[in-house]
């Protein structure tokens, strides 16, 4: 049966409507659509969104298949309502050649849970010294358009300038992990009141802000566009706001955890809260929410960073940085942005699907929920309340800071080009 | 008192005074021909040192032995943070061997806290210094030294340090001793001033219960005790200050500066001292300098802490006993 009727869903949070899927496409959106010949999904007032798009995912394959693989990562993505994820380049080997990006792209296609769009490294081996073959990666089957040394900052101003200029030839974008390396030597957590007390090395806000300031100026100078990864401070918001007001082509993302958690959590010395950039202060969190609401920050991206148990069950300094996020992202956004009245569901569709697809040039994703469009859809039960139980995660890793926390909302169905990848909360 | 001693901030004023008073009792043991109490007989204490510190380890070991505990020394030199599993695995091995308390020294801030709260082991944990976080028994022995000198051993019993003005000078940023002392001295009612070049004061210090000054000469005449902190020579390479000489000129304690202190004021140092840079030999060897006393007092304080965490709450000397586990 190739037809599916989603009945009574609130499309982008609007009035209940029916959505009829035929094959890979949406055939019709309206009220009282005929269910004849179609499998019916009773949506009953649930929120229907375009399939979510994550511009910042770590799938770990190749190289760290003990943390995550393309299969487990895309299953996690489908569970979280995603139909496309951009896989970061810091794998082993690094995704800095056409061969590696094609491998990751092909694995995504084979598994079929979610489209995987590889991100290419900006520099060879993420070493910041020599540009990787950006053009070859773009021309490969993977069609790479986003380039990032994420995990590391492209800190050499000349290399950054060249990368920004070079990708203009094929409409690419450089996604910067803004972290001035000298200012963050030995950094373990946000530098401030809590780090002073805990005696953990400080990661100052200015280390992020100074790079963002430099990069928006470089982007302006060479007339290119730059994307700022996981922006985390109130000061960064101010710089991006200024850059946009000046007409600089900059986009920015915020992670769900930076919208909810603060450096106060680090008092537990529990490495589940160790992440890069670090959790900041309440003031930063509020500024980030406001910036996401007013559009200064364009998108939410998960920075899904799976790590095996042993890399977190240790003392803080020895622990790996990062937390998983694909399966909890929408709940955190509902909690911090929707339930607080800062964003409507239509805004959520923009920040988590339309805009990330646009920034990453993900064809077929981030499209309107209307007739003739690809049937990439996510159905959300926004009334659901429940505690996060990592035991049920599809991700191979469990390093979530939300274990046992109550979060609202649950993705019940995900459709990738008309095929259900998630049905009633269970992977298809 | 709490089950563990992780941070000086864990102690209430009454806890701290109880430890200081108990340490006075313990100090008397050192004056006896046989310097030993049966209090912890049959108990096993492990000194788990992931970071070298001969002084602190020997001090704890002396305290444990004077209380008749069985002592296991575990030195994990080199393996410290290279692989995080080592702490958990080592701790669980010790637990399986029936260790009754763990004294831990670690280069990672928070390692003792993790050990005490992660469910890896059940035994009480005593922090013997973690990274740049805390070194609570050092703060206790410093407070003990101050109380003895400024009030007197017997007159001091039951007393705190209310109104005393204590100055800490040097590398506050990297100093667990400074953090511990600020917490404990504040709890004991003292007024604490930190003096350092701005590069060696942590961002966020404004929330600490103390004053901060960059001018040592202005603070000295108002100090009942001046505690010099160790400055590691490698800080110079990281541009925390221009030269050793410049540091010494601005923040070193020499005879001339010591003369500006009130007549009763002490000079303290947690050791080891870098003579000539942070403190001149003249000052280090003067009778105002309590460095050697601090070492002796360290044993008394550690005995008191071990006794109170492991031995029970009865008076140490009148009813020595070994408790059932």
From TrEMBL, chain B:
Binding site for L-aspartate: 83, 176, 230
Pathway stated in the Swiss-Prot or TrEMBL entry: Pyrimidine metabolism; UMP biosynthesis via de novo pathway; (S)-dihydroorotate from bicarbonate: step 2/3
InterPro entries linked: Asp/Orn_carbamoyltranf_P-bd, Asp/Orn_carbamoylTrfase, Asp/Orn_carbamoylTrfase_sf, Asp_carbamoyltransf, Asp_carbamoyltransf_Asp/Orn-bd
SUPFAM superfamilies, per the entry: Aspartate/ornithine carbamoyltransferase (SSF53671)
Sites where the protein binds carbamoyl phosphate: 55-56, 105, 135, 138, 271-272
GO terms of molecular function: amino acid binding; aspartate carbamoyltransferase activity
Gene Ontology cellular component list: cytosol
EC number: 2.1.3.2
Enzyme class: transferase
Keywords: Pyrimidine biosynthesis, Transferase
Domain of life: Bacteria
Domain Aspartate/ornithine carbamoyltransferase carbamoyl-P binding: 3-147
PANTHER family registered for this protein in UniProt: ASPARTATE CARBAMOYLTRANSFERASE (PTHR45753:SF6), ORNITHINE CARBAMOYLTRANSFERASE, MITOCHONDRIAL (PTHR45753)
HAMAP family: Asp_carb_tr (MF_00001)
Primary role: Catalyzes the condensation of carbamoyl phosphate and aspartate to form carbamoyl aspartate and inorganic phosphate, the committed step in the de novo pyrimidine nucleotide biosynthesis pathway.
Family membership: Belongs to the aspartate/ornithine carbamoyltransferase superfamily. ATCase family.
Subunit and partners: Heterododecamer (2C3:3R2) of six catalytic PyrB chains organized as two trimers (C3), and six regulatory PyrI chains organized as three dimers (R2).
This protein's name: Aspartate carbamoyltransferase
